[in-house]
Amino acid sequence: MKRTKINVLLKLEKTPGKVLIKGWVRTKRDSKEFSFMDINDGSALKSIQVIANNDLENYPDIEKITTGTSVAVAGQLLESPGKGQKWEIQASDIEIINIAPESYPLQKKRHSDEFLRTIAHLRPRTNKYGAAFRIRSEMMFAIHKFYKEKGFRYLTTPLITGADCEGAGEMFRVTSPEPGKENFFGRESNLTVSGQLPAEMFALALGDVYTFGPTFRAENSNTSRHVAEFWMLEPEMAFCDLKENMDHGEELVKYLTQHAMNECKEDMDLFIKFVDKSLSKRIDTLLNSEFGRISYTEAIDILLKSKKKFDFKVEYGTDLQSEHERYLAEVYFKKPVFLTDYPKGIKPFYMRMNDDGKTVAAVDLLVPGIGELIGGSQREDRLLVLEKRMDEMNLPKEDYWWYLDSRKFGSVPHSGFGLGFERFLMMITGISNIRDVIPFPRTPGSIDF
RNA sequence: UCCCCAGUAGCUCAGUUGGCAGAGCAAUUGGCUGUUAACCAAUGGGUCCGCGGUUCAAAUCCGUGCUGGGGAGCCA
pTM here? Predict the structure, then answer.
């Protein structure tokens, strides 16, 4: 007999008669004559109730079933007379695949996130983490669906890189095990911190492209919003200016959020009900409000006029501190807000110089509770301006010869941004620590699993 | 890397002024005719994070290290 997944069973309108399911026992409630078991196979948040009468041939073994035990259950799918579920299975045959001994660490109660992090290999068997990782999977597909529908090409850029692009952050060194030949590629190489520069090359050939893959930062960051290995989505669009770049980012965020609400309703409900009381309102804001759009200069004015006491001084020319960003997104706008046109001194070389000669066409999307979700810009497409900027910042132009070539031969205005995938997941689930939206998080001093 | 907080049973935590190590849940065993994180009863379970110090006496005070959490910086 063929196995049916529990998410399929639970959606049935009428019983097909006999069914076979396989999964793990979540809870078991025994009486003298029968035993109730909730079986979960990970296909859905909900489990299915199984009733085992004591006239089953192997009932003495069934009595020994513990939480976490894997089983195969065959029986009639019947409408449940009990409250709380539509369907239940009256078991005619229960095969115990593997007993989970008493040392199984997941109990029939709520565990702390900190504890579950120490058993990251088992935490997807809990309701909350099962839901989180189903949503993560669905969002990865949704990204590809969004870009497929928009006619973008999916590009995979190298994870091992030679160039120290944008000089942003510490990079992990890639070495060869052979003594004396550590530089396998003949020169220093690193794990990528961004696929942007190669993506620009392909945007200037295929038009609209996006990269979506792992990214690495060797920063010694110890916060709930940083990990050393994370996934980043980077669209790059030819013939696209800063405004269109923002339009695109806003459309993307709304599309993905709506997709989660449509396709992961049951799992999203768990987060709305039990994880973050303000999540429902936040999602409504994401879907239905127009994101704010102001320049860095306007933001400085708002902060100066706010009369709020900040720990760090608000001053034109310096980067905004977390508390400033939080004030703008959470207090002033109470919704996501794009900040544009930052002073050139606090942004990388590739951003397009504005006509004022002081600011560049940068854009950050600040989101309540998360901070920076998107960072991007219109790229500098004028060869001479770009070369001048690189000189100012003491970058070796010869290392970027291929990058500069793109501005030499048929250069066009183009734009793009990076979106931190895990931060997006935090935003739509209300999960407050980035370590809990990635299967096996890598953080300084921690690489278990 | 810096600042703050924490570390006691498998989990979540209490432990008063320095004076015999505690609870709930879980586990184990038994009971129970439809349960919903079932219920009732009994039983077992401790390197009080490690090291050093003060003291007649340290889970408790001091020093130090480690681990975890919150915040900052850096960023996505």
Answer: 0.94
